[in-house]
Amino acid sequence: MNKLSNPHRRTILKSLMYGTFAASAVISESKAADAPLVTEADPTATALHYVSDVKASKDAKPGSKCANCALYTGDRKAVQGPCSIFAGKQVKSNGWCSAWTAIKQ
């Protein structure tokens, strides 16, 4: 039996691959929790008319906020969390920006 077809070896390699993926996911989550909060003065935030409180926006559609946006990747019930638009930063879950996208059901 050659080395590549050894079932035990494949099992070990799969376990290592999945373990590495799981570890990177945990590290990403912990980094996201430690990420700074985006400010309204941030260049990307300014370009997208980000506000930390949706009530401060004249452009927001009723019911729209970061917590119910498809781009928000944090816990929907948390006060703040990561957003795919603002890499390495968190947004207020009650915030809003012009990139708001409805979650597809």
Radius of gyration: 20 Å
Q: Structural class, from helix and strand content? A: mainly alpha
Sheet with the most strands: spatial strand order: 1-2
Mean of the pLDDT scores? 82
The portion of residues assigned to helices is: 25-40%
Features:
2 helices, two-stranded antiparallel ribbon, 105 residues, High-Potential Iron-Sulfur Protein, Chain A, 2 domains, mainly alpha
If you had to describe this structure to a student in words, what would you say it looks like?
This protein has 105 residues and is mainly α. It has two domains: 1-34; 36-105, High-Potential Iron-Sulfur Protein, Chain A (Irregular). The protein is built from two helices and two strands. It has a two-stranded antiparallel ribbon with strand order 1-2. The longest helix has 28 residues, at 7-34. Mean pLDDT is 82; it is low at 23-30.
Summarize the structure.
The chain contains two helices and two strands. The chain has 105 residues and is mostly helical.
Write the layout of secondary structure elements.
Blueprint: H1 7-34, H2 43-47, E1 80-82, E2 90-92
Antiparallel strand pairs: 1-2
